[in-house]
């Protein structure tokens, strides 16, 4: 079982849709923010380090279940964890929770592929990176 890490976000006015709750597309941004934050803070290998090594990540697939709406001013926790790695990809699971109630507003996963920044093509994930993210 991999370690789960949390990032906190406060919902801003620009994230609200015509139904007066967070638009579903913003949930993608919440997970992206949490991953960038956690890569640096929790795994001690930031996206900038990937860039220096000539790598980037691309989303191969994403799955979301929306359970409860999130509203303006809500404090949320974005919890992510690496579920597993393959040769060229990694599966990152997430939950978005309302901080006050700890109820799950959304959950799902992303599959990310490691990309060679020069060629734009998928590349095998180096062993040292797999080790760093396998906590």
Automatic annotation (TrEMBL):
**Classification via InterPro entries:** 4-hydroxybenzoyl-CoA_TE, HotDog_dom_sf
Q: Does the keyword Hydrolase apply?
A: yes
Regarding protein family, the annotation reads:
Belongs to the 4-hydroxybenzoyl-CoA thioesterase family.
Q: What is this protein called?
A: Thioesterase domain-containing protein
GO MF annotations for this entry?
fatty acyl-CoA hydrolase activity
Q: Which UniProt key words apply to this protein?
A: Hydrolase
Taxonomy, top ranks, is:
unclassified sequences, metagenomes, ecological metagenomes
